[in-house]
Amino acid sequence: xxxxxxxxxxxxxxxxAPEWIATVQIESSILLNALFYGAIFGPxxxxxxxxxxxTGALPTAGSQPxxxxxxxxxxxxxxxxxxxxxAWLAGSAVAGTxxxxxxxxxxxxxxxxxxxxxxEELFFRGWMQPLLARHAGPLAAMIVAALAFAxxxxxxxxxxxxxxxxxxxxxxxxxxxGWRSGGLIAPVTAHFGWNAAEQLGxxxxxxxxxxxxxxxxxxxxxxxxxxxGSGEGLNASIAMTFVLAALIVPLMLKGxxxxxxxxxxxxxxxxxxxxx
Length: 276
Hints:
It is globular, with a radius of gyration of 18 Å. Strands 1-2 form a two-stranded antiparallel sheet. By secondary structure, it is mostly helical. The chain has helices at 2-21, 29-55, 65-89, 103-136, 138-155, 161-181, 185-201, 238-253, and strands spanning 93-95, 219-221. The two termini are 24 Å apart.
């Protein structure tokens, strides 16, 4: 029941917040973005923390957090760049003309993106996945949490079948990272690396153009829809499918040393995990 209530809170937030934000009159695009993301992801984070406290499933940072954070962030950012390169080789990624960089907006955007991905991972991989793993095992928990993750984005407007497949694969990748590392740091930093590279690095979201935070470069996805030439951009690209599959396979093949009851890998001897 607690999990159902949490999902209800998350669904209500993503369906109702945009309508409410549309009525708010704020001149600053940065503040408006902060309010928009806060209205959607704030309730999700609170629901996860409250649910974790009630069910005894509060998230942990995981083992070797600095190592996992650096590796996961690098794999997220590199994965996004490789996917964009595939699309470029297919002729579907072209240089745009909208690249701008305002330092204040850029760092505000990084902070907002960090809050967004932290809330999502706290909900889906920090609370839902370990809670489900208690009863169904880690593999089923990862798949169900990934399906809920894709469904959440579908409520937010994702519609293309390839986008939903990529969201499912992304959820499985984040879930594998959470399970392998034993905590939340790895999926949060991987998710942040991917989103930051997409929005602030290459300016691929929104497509075409760049967002209110600016970007280091402006690349637009055009041409064949299967390579990202649609409003959903790289999310609806087969290039993203290839990269996510390549990121998932090594984690699946690596010898699994985990607590199958909790759905997370135990910390190596001599290390501890700390609540986030």
